[in-house]
Amino acid sequence: MAGPHEVLGMSRLLGISTTEFLARYADNGGTTLRFGADGRCVFVTPAGCRVHSRRPLVCRLYPLGRATDGAGDERFALFPKQDCCEAAFGTDGTIADFLESQGVEPYLEWSCRYGELYRRMLGILDRLDIQGKVEAGAGGESDRAPISPWQDIDASLAEYCAVKGIAVPAGIEESIDLHLEAMREWLDGLEGRIGPVPGDREGVRKP
Question: In the chain, where do the E strands start and end?
Fold first, then answer.
């Protein structure tokens, strides 16, 4: 999986726009990285990963898998090593040590922030009777167009900043913050037209 913030980081490392990155390297509506005929990620080379310093969270966590429950408590599981994986495996240290060594903290934060907006978006789209999911395909051209314009940070920020009359931020963190703000404004506008998402019986808003 690759969220908008992860696509942005990888595209900056490669020196291309997120628009070009999604067209060249993403599948399934821009939500996953493309794999070659040999079953390897498009960025895996004999010399190693081309985007290692900006690799997505799922790559940083491997061989761990992470899940959170309804209360926000997280759990980790260990995946068996894949036959084609060339990563170094070890058993020393703690999960906390491993997560720190992989630099996951900002990626977890960004994923949580985007996840909150994504769940809110699905709730609104459901009320509008708009299909809000992407089906994993076979990698055809129909899978390669972004599932949403918001997936393409460079394009969506260029449009947003033009309307606002402000400069497009140059930094990755600043771009992510503004992108999240722009998405939140868009969702606020939708809710302003259809009303807020109803709360459940406990008064907590459903995603």
Answer: 26-27, 32-33, 44-45, 48-49, 64-68, 74-78
Q: Which residues pair with 67 in a beta bridge?
A: 75
> What distance lies between CA 166 and its chain's CA centroid?
25
Give the list of residues 6+ apart from residue 21 with CB closer than 8 angstroms, or none: 7, 10, 11, 14
Task: Decide if 42 is inside a domain.
Answer: yes
Q: Measured on CA atoms in the order 198, 202, 205, 207, is the torsion positive or negative?
A: negative
Tens digits of residue pLDDT in 70-116: 676 788 888 877 776 766 776 778 889 999 999 999 999 999 999 99
For 184, other C-beta atoms within 10 Å of its C-beta total 14
Average pLDDT over the chain, rounded to an integer: 84
Asked, for residue 47, whether it belongs to a domain, the answer is yes
| Number of domain units in the chain | 1
| Residue 11 counted as domain residue | yes
Q: Which domain holds residue 24?
A: 4-52+104-194
